Amino acid sequence: MAKIILTVLELLLAIALIIVVLLQSGKSAGLSGSIAGGAETFFGKYKGRTLDAMLGRYTWIIAAAFFVVSILLFLVIRGC
After folding, report:
1. What was the pLDDT predicted at 49?
2. Is the pLDDT at 21 greater than 70, yes or no?
3. Which tens digit of pLDDT belongs to each residue from 30-64?
4. How does DSSP assign 24-60, residue by residue?
5. Phi and psi, residue 26, nearest 5°
6. What protein family is recorded (predicted)?
7. CA 56, CA 78: separation in Å to the nearest integer?
8. Contact indicator for 6, 67 with CB cutoff of 8 Å
9. pLDDT at residue number 3
10. Residue 63 and residue 24: Cα distance in Å, rounded?
11. CB 76 within 8 A of CB 2
12. pTM score
């Protein structure tokens, strides 16, 4: 029973991790990044930074939970 619960939990965490990573904005580089950076300072870059910081925090939390559940699932399957 624990194996099924941990497997479902790991699947949900994997989907959540994919979604949170895809929601994050990429790091721009080059000429297009400098143009977007200028527009970002004009239109309020602090709002975007707080959202990016929040998504980054959620990414770390979900990744840590995924790691712990993966180890627990391994131990349950192995029989330790």
Report:
1. 66
2. yes
3. 454 555 555 555 555 565 568 888 999 999 999 99
4. SPPPP-HHHHHHHHHHHHHH-HHHHHHHHHHHHHHHH
5. -80, 165
6. Belongs to the SecG family.
7. 33
8. no
9. 94
10. 15
11. yes
12. 0.71
